[in-house]
What we know:
Layout: E1 6-15, E2 18-28, E3 33-37, H1 44-52, E4 59-64, E5 67-68, E6 79-82, H2 94-104, H3 109-122, H4 138-150, E7 156-160, H5 168-185, E8 188-193, H6 196-202, E9 205-210, E10 213-218, H7 220-225, H8 230-235, E11 240-242, H9 244-250, E12 256-259, E13 265-268, E14 277-289, E15 293-300, E16 305-311, H10 317-321, E17 327-333, E18 338-340
Parallel strand pairs: 3-8, 3-9, 6-7, 7-8
Antiparallel strand pairs: 1-2, 1-4, 4-5, 9-10, 11-12, 12-18, 13-17, 14-15, 14-17, 15-16
Helix pairs in contact: 2-3, 2-4, 3-4
This protein binds adenosine-5'-triphosphate.
Residues 15, 18, 20, 38, 40-46, 194 line the site of adenosine-5'-triphosphate.
Amino acid sequence: MEAPAVRLRGLRKSFGAAEAVAGIDLDVRDGEFFSLLGPSGSGKTTVLRLIAGFETPTAGGVELAGRDVTGLAPFERDVHTVFQDYALFPHLTVERNVAYSLKVRKVPKAERLDRARRALAEVGLDGFATRRPGQLSGGQRQRVALARALVGRPRLLLLDEPLGALDLKLRERMQGELKALQREVGITFVLVTHDQQEALTMSDRIAVLNRGRLEQAGTPAEIYERPATAFVASFVGAANLLDDALARRLLGTPGTHSLRPEKIRVLKESAAGAPGHATATGTVADVVYLGDATRFLVDLDGGGRLTALQQNLDTSAADVAGCRGARVRLAWNHRHTVHVPPPT
Length: 344
Ligand code: ATP
């Protein structure tokens, strides 16, 4: 079997008394689009900087393609990092920005300009070679940063919130483009993001970090459908967390359980239960019209509250307004409740 593109072994990093990375073991496979996902301060950027070599671990080590690089400087690793602010040279043309790393490596001029043009074509920027960064939009600057990363054909590309500065529409478009580009060039991508939607959309696998620790690593579907912890359930998408008492009452099983709002159906109170389904009756405490869907907050008879999300197939904003105070029955398939350790 091929060595993983990245292997983190017992990785720790402290800044004074604060532990930014608190012992992480993780493999990123060769050719994967891998995301490090977590809230602000969870240690994502520090992990990325440890992989790149901008930080030295307090303990543990980093292997790249089977080679221990823990003590090596960034330029001794076959890695390129794209920073959030793109770090372009404002006084150089787009083409020269892209060719810069080749110049440092003493690649002859004709070859480096040729490779820069090809990298610009890869990111859809042919025709922009002679502009300066100040004459480009945010999305175009982002592409220049990518072209600059790709031109040296690193084995591993590290991206720190690369789409963070873009507006939502452009961000969504670039997510698709970035994923397509990664497939095309076949380079391993490790991306840092705090945006769960972005991680779910683009990644082959995701590592969810919390307080410097790895909560779960898996495919988007595994992370979403089978969250390993209460933190993952709540951070990736929305989740109802049923505590032990509520789980005993509603499910007949002890322990904390996660239940996604969109798995819960909102029915008339008189509706009959279906085999394999749990049901609970209650009163709609609040209802929020979201355009494509409606969110119901339901106070259950006997205590507890669940959030349910319904697609607006036939519903309009006017229908939704009248639901507050209505008596309803909630129903969900038993297989959608996931047992998780209690929140710490
Ligand atoms: P964000 O999404 O906000 O960038 P992050 O998940 O990338 O957050 P890190 O930047 O890795 O988090 O920071 C993790 C923790 O380490 C934070 O508490 C941060 O304040 C601390 N930290 C990071 N770099 C340093 C540093 N150079 N000196 C001191 N503390 C640091």
